[in-house]
Amino acid sequence: MFMNMEARRNMTRRLIRGLFIVILTIFGFLCSCTQKNGDSDRTLGEAIMIDGIDVSGMSSAAAFETLSYEHMKRSDDISVTVTSPNNGSVSFSAQSLPIEYDTQDVIDEALKLKRFHPIGNGYRVFETQSHIDAAKAAQALKGLCARLESEPKNAESRYTGTLPDKFEFTGGISGYEVDVDSLAEELAAAWGTGNEYAFEAPMIEIKPEYTLEAAKADNTLIASCTTYFDKSPHNAENRVFNIIKGAGLIDGCQVEVGSEFDINEVLGARSERNGWRMAAGIREGKYNQEYGGGICQVSTTLYNAVLMADLEVTERHHHSWPMSYAPIGLDATISTGGPNLRFVNSGKSRITISAATDSKNMSITVEIYGAPLDNGVTIRLSSEKIETLDEPDAKYRLDSSLPFNTVVRDRKGRRGSISQAYKEYYDANGKLIDKRLISKDVYGAISAIYRVSEDVYYAKASTGQSAVDVEP
User: Fold this and answer.
1) Dihedral of the CA atoms 10, 14, 20, 22 (nearest 10)?
2) What is the DSSP letter of 146?
3) Residue 250 confidence (pLDDT) above 50
C-alpha cells in the first residue's frame, strides 16, 4: 500500500517538529549547565534597574562592572573629615576607604526574575547596600590620618657652664597617634547616614622614653677636684695663662658610654702657633721653659676627678717627682707626643667635664657630671709615701769654657719616693665600705749635675772616690 502525497507531507512535518523539540531541549539543557558553571554569562531580563542604573539585558559581569564604576564615582562625592586636638584636621573622599557593596548578591536576585516584563508595567527596582569593615578601615585610616600624629620628643640637656646648675634642661614632649581602631568603629557605625562625615580623632598619648627627671639624674655632679696655683713658682703669669687655656679646652667635653677621652687629642700640640706660652715644665729631670708649661696641673686635676667618678683610667703617668699642688701618687703628667692621660667612660650615662679657673683664689676646679654612683656611694682619694730613696751622688761634666775653679749646677739632686694611692668608697651614711689600691708609683731619685772647669774636673777625677761619678 502506498500513502498518498498528503499523508507523506504530514508525516514529514511531524518528524521535523519532533526533531526541533529535541534540539531545543538539548540547547536548554546546555544553557542551564552554562549558567550553573558561570553566572557571569547570564543576562538580566527586561525593565530591571539597580541603584538607579538600567541594567536590562546586561550580562551579570557587565552589570557588576557598571555598578562598581558608579559606586566608585558616588564614593568620590562622600567626604570624611577627621580632626585632632593638636594637629588640625584631614579630609578625604570615601573612595580611599575599603567600602564593600552587596552588588553581586543583588544581581543574583535580579537574575531570578522572569526575563520578559513589559516596560509598561514599570521597572523592577533594586538597591545595593554598602558597609565598611572596621578592621580593613583601620589599616586605611592609619595612612590617611598620619598627618594628625606626632612623635614624642625626649627631654634634653645642654651644658652651659654657668652657675648654679651648669645645665639647661628641656622637658620631654608627649607624642600622639590616632586610635585608628576606635575611629574605624565609629566610621563603620555611622556609615550610610549621609554624604559628609566628621569625627574628632580619638588620640593615644605616647610619652617620651627619656623624661626631664631622667635627664637631670644623668647630669648629676659625681665628682669634683680643686687644685691651687697661688704660690711660686706655680703662679707665674705664662703658666697661669696655659692653665686657663687648657681648662677652657676641656670644659664642656662630653664622653659617651664606652668611649675614650684623650686629653692630648683635645688640647692639641702645645706650640706658639697654637697659642700656648712658654712656662716651666719638667724635662730630663729638671724644669725647662717650654710651650704649654703648667698644663700638667690641668691633667692632674682632671685625673683626680675621674678617679672619684669611678671611671676607668687607661693611661696615666706620674711626674719625675711629686707635685706640691697634688698629693703624692695622684698627679698625672702629659706632654705633646709623649705621656698622656686617657680614660674610658665606664659609667651608666654620658658624662660631661666641667673645668673652670678662679682668678681670685688662683685655682682650677674640674667636675664630672653624669649618672651618680649606685646606692649613694661616694669616693675619696688618699695616698701615702711608703719609702724614701736616697739621692744619688752628684755627676760632674767638663766644661772647658768655664774659668778656673768654677762649678755650675745644671740640675738639682732629689731624693726619690715610693707611694701608694687608694680609692676609698663610702656609703650614703658616710661609712667606709671599701678601699682599693689605685697605683704604686716610684719617683726615682735624681742626681745633681754640675758643669765644672778643667781644674775642678781633673781634681775630682784624680781622687778616685767611688762615690763621685765623673763624666767626660
Assistant:
1) -170
2) G
3) yes
In the block, cell 538607579 appears at 52
Query: Could you tell me if 89 and 83 are in contact, meaning their C-beta atoms sit under 8 angstroms apart?
Result: yes
Contacts of 148 (CB under 8 A, 6+ apart): 82, 84, 87, 88, 89, 90, 176, 178, 201, 203
What gap in Å lies between CA 324 and CA 330, rounded to an integer?
A: 11
Query: In this model, does residue 15 exceed pLDDT 70?
Result: no
* Mean pLDDT, the chain, integer: 89
Q: What is the mean pLDDT of residues 123-129?
A: 96
Residue carrying the nine cell digits 552588588: 103
Query: Which of 345, 445, 431, 429 has its CA nearest to residue 387?
Result: 445
**Model confidence at 34: pLDDT above 60:** no
Q: Where do runs of H (alpha helix) occur along 251-377?
A: 263-267, 295-308
Q: Which amino acid is at 228?
A: Y
CA distance 55 to 44: 7
Beta strands in 320-445 (DSSP E): 342-344, 351-358, 363-370, 378-389, 395-398, 407-411, 416-426, 432-443
Query: Rounded to an integer, what distance in angstroms lies between the CA atom of residue 195 and that of residue 113?
Result: 32
40 falls in which pLDDT band (50, 70, 90)? low
Beta bridge partners of 367: 224, 354
